[in-house]
Amino acid sequence: MSPLLTAGQTPCIQDTSTFCYQVWKATNNEWLAGSANWLLTKPLKILMILVIAFVIRLLLKRLINRITTFPRSGGKLPALLRPLRERAPEVLGSAVIERRRQRAQTIGSVLKSMSTFLIYGLAFILVLGELGLNLGPIIASAGIIGVAIGFGAQNLVKDFLSGIFMMVEDQYGVGDVVDIGEATGTVEAVGLRITTLRDLKGTVWYVRNGEVLRVGNSSQGFAVAVVDVPLGYTADVERATTVLAAAASTATESELLKDNVLEPPEMLGVESVTPEGLQLRLTVKVRPGKQWAVQRALRAQLLAALEEAGFEPPLGRLFPSAAPAVEK
User: Fold this and answer.
1) Are 57 and 119 spatial neighbours (Cβ–Cβ below 8 Å)?
2) CB within 8 A of 40, min separation 6: which ones?
3) Which residues are within 8 A (CB) of 217 and not within 5 positions of it... i.e. 6 or more apart?
4) Of 7, 112, 199, 250, which is most buried by a Cβ count within 10 Å?
5) For 197, which DSSP code?
6) 282, 265 contact by CB (below 8 A)
7) 150: three-class secondary structure by DSSP
8) Which residues contact 106 (CB under 8 A, 6 or more apart)?
């Protein structure tokens, strides 16, 4: 049974089921009883909200790490990457492992950032509600500030969104040789904001993902080595074609090239006719990224085979005086 109240006493001490009444009964202090909700109940609720938010974020972080962690020794793809399309060529060896690891870490980082923002943002709103603040003006102000920041940082947001889609679609990765317009080279690092390339001269290019409008990737699936061989007008094209086909077949079966060649070479014949002579074209399907090495090796061996078969260079007919010297 509750004690009798005098005029001006706090109404909450009339209800025996409230914490306010229990404090008033224990201390007989009306101010302390009236403030018990602020001094004890609300801090405990706020602490509980923060603890629950921290625990949920910790569990989500561990789950994300589990499904995105790539073993250092290689092995299976992380669980998160298995449903996603992957175009990494196995021929890249150790580079493809680094590419997969970087892709998994980047996607995991995005998921962690999003989960942290959502969980702590919701906890912050709940805490403000417990403090009795009117959330309407705060949410409206936050929306206005968000729009202003969005307009000011739209290029940054564009870079991040482009980086996320590029990672998910696996358009290119570490070790790929790509042409992205202003720069062409080997990808050294891929981030959500920028991609780092190193070209043939050793120059490092930093390209914003939002500025990449098209990508030419020379390291996906397979590549084609294209070799154009010059020939003079007076040469026997049919015989030259036979010589080149035999030389290309022998070269692609050698120890130097056979590991990079996927299919036998194909002799296409006369590709073009120029004022200097003819161009015979030969193509070979090779492993991605190996087309340039195969082209250089084939070009040297094919020209040597033509010379050995007695074919003169295309401009030989313009310098007849040089012919005797060549024969010696």
Assistant:
1) yes
2) 19
3) 87, 171, 172, 176, 177, 178
4) 112
5) E
6) yes
7) helix
8) 163, 167, 190, 191, 192
Mapped to the 3 state alphabet, what secondary structure does 207-227 carry?
Answer: EEHHHCCCCEECCCCCEEEEE
Specify the length of the chain in residues: 328
Angle 154-169/94-130 helices, nearest 10 degrees?
A: 130
Contact by Cβ (8 Å): 267, 199: no
- Tokens standing for residue 191: 């981030």
Global pTM?
0.54
Closest Cα to residue 224, out of 137, 159, 287? 287
Residue 284: phi and psi, rounded to 5, are -140, 130
**Whose structure tokens read 């991040």?**
160
C-alpha dist (Å) from residue 319 to 108, 204, 316, 322: 67, 45, 5, 6
What the block records as the tokens of 119 is 């969980």
Mean pLDDT over 203-217 rounds to 87
Please choose, from the candidates 319, 280, 270, the residue with its C-alpha nearest in 3D space to the C-alpha of residue 303. 280
State pLDDT tens for residues 272-314: 887 778 888 999 998 887 888 888 999 888 888 888 888 877 7
The CA angle 265-271-275, to the nearest 5 degrees, is 140
Pairwise CA distance, residues 115 & 174, whole Å: 27
Q: What are phi and psi of 224, to 5 degrees?
A: -125, 120
Question: If DSSP codes are grouped into helix, strand and coil, which group holds residue 206?
Answer: strand
Q: Is 237 helix (H, G, I), strand (E, B) or coil?
A: helix
